[in-house]
Amino acid sequence: MLPAQARLRRRPEFTAVVRSGRRAGRPTLVLHYLPVRAADTIRPVARTGGLPDPAAGPRAGFVVGRSVGNSVCRHRVTRQLRHLVRAELHRLPPTADLVVRARPEAAGAGSAVLGRDLSRGLDRLLGASRADRSHPS
Predict the structure, then answer these.
(1) Which residue from 10, 48, 60, 113 has the least number of CB within 10 angstroms?
(2) Which fold has domain 7-37+57-132?
(3) pLDDT category, 59, cuts 50, 70, 90?
(4) What are the strands, taking DSSP E only, across 51-112?
(5) Where are the domains of the chain?
(6) Which residues of 54-82 are buried (b: 16+ CB within 10 A; e: fewer)?
């Protein structure tokens, strides 16, 4: 399970990431990534400067809709994704937010397939963000 400080919980937090972040689609997942939290979604604040507290670390949220399957299937997919994302959170910057949206194909996919799609999606998102920073325009 993800610790409480590593989870997105409120609708405005999810909305900010989905609307303002980068997106990477995979066969079983869609990843939405926002490297720096928007001002209205910053929760812990450092005592100096009003910046996000880096000790809080990156956060993740999950969207597993009815199209994935019945409640038993949705909860199983959510548990698998939570376990896989927890192992990948170290790759994200401390101020990053990630929303993982499961596609209907995730219902029949095993943990290995979900893990592969998550890893490749993060590779794409993090590689693109590094390239953007190294080539200022």
Answers:
(1) 48
(2) Ribosomal Protein S5; domain 2 (3.30.230)
(3) very high
(4) 59-63, 97-102
(5) 7-37+57-132
(6) eebbbbbbbbbeeebbeeebbeebbebbe
